[in-house]
Amino acid sequence: MKTLLFFGFDNEIGLTYHFVDWVNALGKASNGKLKIIFLTLKKEQNQGLHEKLKKIQSIDVVVMDKPDDLEGLEFLKDVNIVHCQGFRQAAQSLKIRKKNKFQFKIVMSLHSFRNSNWYKHIYANLVSFLYVNKIDVINFLSHSAKNEFLKHNIFYRPSNRSFVFPLGCNEDDFTREEPIEEMPFYDEMERARKNIIYLAGFSRGKQHLWLLKTIKDILIKEDAKLWLFGGDAGQREKTKRYVDENGLAQYVRMPGRVDRKYIPSILRRMNFAVCTSKSENSPHAIMEPMFSGIPVVTFDIGTASYLIRDFSNGFVIRGRTEKENFRKAVEFLLRNKEVSESMGRNNKEIAHRSLTWNTTADNCVNMYLGII
């Protein structure tokens, strides 16, 4: 039996709920074909994730104090595949493989490459030259992300092996109802006839201000509420100031970040979701509304053009240059409730068929078996 070492942590955040869900599905999908060692940090994104990890019986868990402890792990000589989450982990693995003349294959899932910054193409060239060309397999999370990474990339070798498939969502989260009646915004949300949601931290790349400027008159005309859920990443105060200065406080609500377990219950009370992010690889701002059975109006990012069809389950807008198309899509969904609900049902069917962690795990196992 071959051995897989799976990096299950973000270098800054530590263990995240995505990695717990991912490896749980991976353990089931491997079905005895692979021995899985799940490598993570003591630090965790949310309290209780390590306890949840202990309940997964089909994997071995190794917990480190810090990422640099990787070099001291003796079992690395017996590993056949190392699955990294990003360039820093890939760089560490390449260094260890070269130094010790180990034979393991390196897989890297490409979650981000500074794709919201002006220097993203310079960065893509640099990491291709330093790391990507030496990695055995790259897992791009969408064709859109792959195309963006390769655009103007003169160092990426055409012979590099890559696969494209997205991350998943835990479908069980969307089949249960977490009570939200005690939350301060609940009554207002229930009273509103038309609710729109955008799930994104307040950063420049998420373009909250562009969204507000584009649809503010529609919100007022249709008496609709836009709910902005997300933590502050530098742009929250600027967004709030725009809301206050333009008399939008009645139409734009900013509850901040809430525990993710409540997100499905919140989404089910929405008419549809929007996403105006500059760039995403595998956007949960699109996927989670799909699981909840509501349409999505989104820029053409990540998996959007693969998953969403106009008038079928949402609308895909090219980007900021198609401001009027975005406005018309929002207006259409606010004025056509029955069509919107039908589109939402289509979304739910697609999500539960194609976007679960079980699907992601099956793809991963096939990818591993294809390189050893």
CATH architecture field of the largest domain: 3-Layer(aba) Sandwich
Give the count of helical stretches.
14
**Gyration radius, rounded:** 21 Å
The percentage helix is 25-40%
Structural class: alpha/beta
Q: Into which percentage range does the β-strand content fall? A: 15-25%
Lateral arrangement of strands in the main beta sheet: 3-2-1-4-5-6-7
N- to C-terminal separation? 11 Å
What do you see in this structure?
By secondary structure, the chain is α/β, with parallel strands linked by helices. The chain folds into two domains: about 180 residues, Rossmann fold, CATH 3.40.50.2000; about 180 residues, Rossmann fold, CATH 3.40.50.2000. The chain is about 40% helix and about 15% strand. The chain contains 14 helices and 13 strands. A seven-stranded parallel sheet has the order 3-2-1-4-5-6-7, with helices on both faces. The longest helix has 18 residues. The protein is globular.
Strand and helix layout:
Elements: E1 2-7, H1 17-30, E2 34-41, H2 49-54, E3 60-64, E4 81-85, H3 87-100, E5 105-110, H4 120-130, E6 137-140, H5 143-150, E7 162-164, H6 186-191, E8 195-199, H7 208-222, E9 225-229, H8 236-245, E10 252-256, H9 263-267, E11 272-275, H10 284-292, E12 296-299, H11 304-307, E13 314-317, H12 323-335, H13 337-354, H14 357-369
Parallel strand pairs: 1-2, 1-4, 2-3, 4-5, 5-6, 6-7, 8-9, 8-11, 9-10, 11-12, 12-13
